Every structure is written in structure tokens, then in C-alpha cells.
Amino acid sequence: MRTGLRISSLVPSGLVVESVSDSPDSIILAVRSAASAVKCPSCGSVSRRIHSRYTRQVADLPSAGRKVRLRVITRRFVCGVRHCRRKIFAERFGGSLPVRARRTARLECIIHHLGLALGGRPAASFAKRLMLPVSNDTLLRVVRRRTCPPTEPLIVAGIDDWAFRKNHRYGTIVCDLERRRIVALLPDRETATVRAWLSEHPEIRVVSRDRGGGYGEAAAKALPDALQVADRWHLMENASAAFLGAVRRSMRLIRAAIGTTTINPALLTCAERLQYQGYLRRQDANTAIMALVKDGVPIKEIVRRTGHSRQVVRQVSRGQSTDIFRTRQSTLDAHLPFLDAQWALGCRNGTELWRRLQVQGFQGSLRVVSEWRTRRQRAEKATDQQLQKVPSARTIARLMTTARDYLSKADTVTIAAIEAHVPTLVDARTLIERFQVMVRQKVVAELEPWTATAGASLIASFASGILKDKAAVCAAITEPWSNGQTEGQITRLKLVKRQMYGRAKIDLLQARLIGTA
Ligand SMILES: [Zn+2]
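Above are the sequence and the zinc ion SMILES. Below is the predicted complex in C-alpha cell form.
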């Protein structure tokens, strides 16, 4: 039976198979070029004079579960041109078998993609199964070597930071928001580094960045003509945080409004009692500091006498002493709106809430959620007597921004009392709501009157921050660009980073992330 398959069609084009020798796990093909005359690489003239021959060993794609090696019979030619620098040259085999390569181009392409998808070690063990002769070091080397930086001009850039190791080392990520791809990873988040990088890319017209000062400053210096866009999500987040700050600063008034200025330790839970004792200690310290402030002792001297930090002394002297029950930053903070919604839908089971949160990306433990559930349930059952206990600033901020219809009876009474006695806080809430509506509905004309009013309220520092960053905030309201996409790319970056057990250097991360696009 005749088949149409010739053995020469299995090797890269331009090569002819001379002989085949095979063993149970490999096939060795001796191949040579089909051309009889070749061009000199220096002068380009054609030569037919063969000087000598040698063989090159080159790996190729496996065939039928066996490794394939090519023994390439390479001819050396004599260049007959008189003034040519080369007297003798070896023949070239084109793109399918690059000069000095140990692998055919088609094998290298597969190795490159394997390395991009899986990283060094996992890709190496997978390659072994595929009968591809390659080590993990080679895989990574190929990934690094074959990365080509993007060639399209970058017009709309999104910048954010990402963690090499959380709380230890951070880098900067730059994305092309138009083409939805990562453009560069920078080794830190210093203003100078980002500025230097941006200066090399004068074609950028729009820079989308978060609300921290560093990137804005870098962009302003490197690209003074580019439009800066603040991140909308961060704007909303900062607005909520500003309101929480306003509530914290009003706690004294709130406590007076609710009618409990004294605390009965018998009603406290164990953890709260510890906090309360700490509060009494802090109160003593505060009175001592305030007495010194009244006597006109300079801050430096107070620090020396009392042993408290400069920051604490300054806070106390400004009347910003902390509240009794401090709320700590918790892993739950970002998920509180979702939890509230689930609670409102009737879910009362801690484990179930935790499971639903996990689907949302929550990584904390069940215990955190169960504790939240218990606290929440107690709050629902609040009786008049328990009402004597003042809720935390965070709870008050949440209750004040929740629609009346959704509050329990006890909560409604509390909030009504606060609203009646602390009008400045009600003003602050109205301002925050106005700000959020403005961002959501893209009404940029509102910004000017808003900052004017907010400047004289409890959220003045938030307003002055907005005023300092006014152009970028305006752009955030009007422009379609935002950093949400950059956050998504950071998730991808984290995945690749963890896949390499967190040991990849930045160039390798960059090669794997940019190489796939
Ligand atoms: Zn020549």
C-alpha cells in the first residue's frame, strides 16, 4: 500500500532526510540542506565551492511518543569574492533552524508557551511527559529571551502598586488600559522610579492612578501635559472613611446625646472590659498631657517628661484623643456591605455567611464571621437597658448611612437622638451623600460648590484633599478611564507570582505576564 507521507515532510522545510536510525525511545534523523548553492552571509554572493562538512545536533518535536533528534549535516563553503572578509562560511538553514540553535524553531515555540503558562518547574515536569527534552532552567531562559516589549504606543496608562510580600516589599504595575494588557513591572513604588519610567514614554496622554500622592506627583513631573485620572473606587472609599472619621471625632457629643456619659463595667464583656481599663489608663495620661499643654509646655518637652510618642501628644493636645472602644482594622471591613445585605435577606447562620463570603473572595477565618454574627444578633435584640451602651463609631457610621426603613426600632431611636443633638454630623452625612451622587451621576459642575461647603464641615480635611487633587478628581468624574482594570491585572500577577512559589524575580514575572499577550 502506498501512502502519500514522505519522511522528509516531517522535518523542517528545506531539509532532506538522508538516513533514519531509531531506538525504543528516540529517533535520530540525519538531514542535510536541499540547496546546492548558498549565499555568503557577508557579501551575499552565491558560492558552490564546498570546503568541508560537520554535523550539528538539534532537538526537534517528538514523534509518536519518541524524542526526535536531527543530525544536521552542515557544509562549509568557500567565498570566492576577492575583497570579502570571509574566506569560509557555514551554510544557514533559515528561520526554522536558527544559527547556533540547539532546538528547531517549532520546538522552541512550544517550550516558550509551556514556560509562559506554567513557569519553570511545573512546565519542566509536564515537558518530560510530552517527551520534550528541556530542563526548568532552559524553560525560564527561553521565556526571558523571547519576551518582546510591546510595540504599540501607550496612550492610556493605569498605574498601581502590588505586593512582592505584603507589608514588606512593593512594586509598581503599569497597564495599557486601551489594550487591556500589562506593559511593565517596576521594582518599587518610589516616586523617582515611576517618574523615570514615565519620562521614557512621552506618548502617554492619560494616567489613571490611585489617590495616594506618589504616582500623581511622578506623573505631574514626568508628563506635565498628560491628563491625570483619580480612581473612582478609591474616591468613594475615601468619602466613606472621611465620614467614619467625622463620627469618631463626634463620639463625645454622641455619647451625651444618647444619654450615657458613664459606663457601667458590670455590663461589659470580657474583651470590652480590657479595652475599658486601657481607656481609663489613657484618660489618666491624657489629663496629664493636657495639664502640661495648658501650662504652655512645648510638645518636645511633654514627650520627654511623659514618655509618650510625639504623635500621641499631638493628638491629645488637639483634642483628638481616641474613643473608649476602639475598632480595629479587620479583614471583614471590605466585606461589611455584603454581609449587611445577606443579613437583611435573612441569613443568620455564621457558617453559611462565611461560605457566601468566600465565594466573594474573602480569605479570613470562620471565627471572624461568627463573631460578627454574634455581635450583630445582640445588637438586634437590644433592649432599652442595653441601649445605654453606646455603639462603636463604625456601627454608628453604618446606621447613619443606612436607609431608615431597614433599621431596627432600637437603632432608629439611637440615630434619631444623634441626629437631633449632633447637627454637624448630619451635615457631614449630607455632604458625603452629595459627593457620592456627584461621582455616580458624573455631574462635574457640582464639585466647585461642594468643596466650598465641605471646607467648613467635619469632613474638611477630605474636602481639602479633593481640592488639592482637583483636576484628577474632575477627570475621574468625567473620563471613562478608571483603575478597576489595573486591579484585575494585579490579580493575574498574583496568580503567576504564587505559581512560581513567590520566588520569581521581577524580570521573569514581567516576561511571563507580558509574553502571553
Ligand atoms: Zn563573501
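Residues 38 and 47 are 6 Å apart (CA to CA).
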